[in-house]
Amino acid sequence: MLKIIANPNREQYQKITNAIKDNDGKCCCIIQPTKCMCDYFKNQNKPGPCICGRFIKIEVPDVVYPTSMDEWR
């Protein structure tokens, strides 16, 4: 399962976030500006950063929750 996280490099994350704010919330890295988070990244099916590097998709293990109280014991 993939999870989206903010870039752990806080300086880089903040620099990109400020550029996006200055660009009316639109990604600065795509030819046709789209609101951040871009559809390209949302539809990405593998781990890795978005085009601008603000967000990263990471692989996390699937969590299986018990379906009954008996399974909790």
Beginning-to-end CA distance, first to last residue? 26 Å
Order of SSEs, N→C? Answer: EHHEEH
- Give the domain tally: 1
| Global mean pLDDT | 87
How would you classify the helix and strand content by structural class? alpha+beta
Approximately how much helix is present in the residues? 25-40%
Number of helices: 3
Using the CA coordinates, give the radius of gyration.
17 Å
Count all strands and give the number: 3
Query: Largest sheet at a glance?
Result: 3 strands, antiparallel
Low-confidence stretches: none
Biggest sheet: strand arrangement: 1-3-2
* Percent of sequence in beta strands: 15-25%
Shape: elongated
Q: Could you characterize the architecture of this molecule?
A:
The chain has 73 residues and is an alpha+beta fold. It has one domain. It is built from 3 helices and 3 strands; from the N terminus they run E-H-H-E-E-H. The chain has helices at residues 10-22, 39-42, 69-72; strands spanning 2-6, 48-49, 55-59. It has a 3-stranded antiparallel sheet with strand order 1-3-2, with no helix packed on it. The longest helix is centred in the N-terminal third of the chain and has 13 residues, at 10-22. The chain is elongated. The two termini are 26 Å apart.
Break the fold down into its secondary structure elements and pairings.
Elements: E1 2-6, H1 10-22, H2 39-42, E2 48-49, E3 55-59, H3 69-72
